[in-house]
Amino acid sequence: MAITKTYQGTEPVRINKWLAQSGICSRREAETLIGQGAVSIDGETVTSPGHKISAGQSLTIGGAAQKQLESRFTAVLNKPVGYVSAQPEGEQVPAARLLTAANREGRGEVPSSRKSLAPLGRLDADSRGLLLLSDDGVLAKAIIGPDSELEKEYVVEVKGRITADRIDRLCHGLELDGRKLKPAKVTKNGPTGLRFVLKEGRKRQIRRMCELVGLDVVDLLRIRIGPLEMASLPPGRWRALSDDERDAMIRAAGPKPKPKPRLHPRTPRR
Fold first, then answer.
1. What's the number of domains the chain is made of?
2. How many CB atoms lie within 10 A of CB 135?
3. Which pLDDT does position 264 carry in this prediction?
4. 228-229 vs 216-225, strand pairing mode
5. Whole-model pTM above 0.85?
6. Which of these, 54, 152, 184, 192, has the minimum number of CB atoms within 10 Å of its CB?
């Protein structure tokens, strides 16, 4: 079956931009589908990625292209220590090797070993927890795109004395590689623990942040990405991301509404 969607906006918008904002496909995927002649508006085939759709018009993506889009796959994995999320080097073991039928929670397709799944937010080999492996371009942009504002939450155990001054420095004022970090939410979590909430993911960021304030990380667990929580998924186990979860993450990463201007009350006339 084909995908049909009616544009409800007020101003005309480029098709590739609207499809990406709607979570149907990425801009690049939209351009490929248009080049294949798979996209039409009110029954007329679209030939240009810059074509705009207007309010009330209906866009249709042909059935063959729909199958192509539906083949996208995202795994939710509780990565144990010792596996790398990115391309392995030497003796390293990739986390994707855990995506087997024996390790699956619930039902669903087991991805082929030939399927290329990228980490949407890396976890080092000595870190553990929530990891998404995916070939979904729209979801990737929502989570790790340059404009993403999705929070990532971590529970961290450290060596060293946790003081109010160190927590304040972790929240504000640190730099890595000559670039100032975005503000972080860091709170104490037990006598030797910290809870981090970040909106960016620089290389080994939390470990390097802690080093800058005199703390050593001994355990790092990611428990949340945006609205998606790892919950009770056991270590080394995985499940498929649901459509509802995907939609929720894309919505959460979308542009935030601009605050309404404050109206100053009129001074009553005397």
1. 2
2. 15
3. 56
4. antiparallel
5. no
6. 54
